[in-house]
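Structural biology now treats backbone shape like a language. To illustrate, our science desk offers a sequence and the tokens encoding its fold:
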Amino acid sequence: MIIFRVLYDLGGSNKSLGARFGPMAIERAFSRWNWRGTEDGILHPELSLSWISYIHSLERYRQRTESVFTKRKRLDPFITLSGDNSCSFETVRAVRDQIGHIALAVLDAHPDACVPGHDPHADWVWRLWNEGIVMPEKTIFFGIRDPEKDEAAYIKEKRATVIGPDEIYRSYAAGINSVAPYTALWQLISAHALVIVVDIDVLDPAYAPGTGVLRAGGLGVRHVLYIIQQLSALPFAVKIGEICEVIPEEGNKIRPKFDQRPDPCGLTVLAADAIFREMIRSISA
């Protein structure tokens, strides 16, 4: 399993400032105790993690993914720990360069499908659609609760699917697979690649106060883990994950005083670490 670490947070101006420290914070949390891969104490089969050296620009990230997969002559499962969502565009493009068809699952409070002119981290989905990298009808959003009016209309026009927090809550409480009703959207490309992008602000601020834009009414950590499990169980040839927008305390210190995100207990990093562990387990299964 390949792990890319992209220390970049300049795509969202002050909104994502400090997220460059997120990948290192998640890595530290992950390293504190042995990874077993399950919650029942049973050791996961031996899995080698290949940590790619720290990457500080989108251009360098693009170059590294190209060189790694060209050398391997195949697209292997990978997870990217990144700064802001502008990195997500490069993650998906790197997959497209290796495999022609992509199914995209976005777990986020915001759909990031704004018309360009906003910060780059707010239009990365729009750019994917308009460059033909991902088809809108092959995109599913989970947990969206703060779209702009024009953005929401655009998503509806493009026939992308949105599974809101209420539906996720009800499905989880009832023990119903919230992904299953929508898998037909991906049926024709089920032999290809699935990309799961988790912006940490999909979580309620009670679980993740250390992020750029705080919106109450989000998901719990368990909801996100459950969705990742459901998605990863689908029969895609390769599965890719990304976690972004985590602002740990060292990142919070460089933010303007009027816009700080104090998280002295490190709840956001703990949540991101749990999601990272679930991605490793599910994607490699």
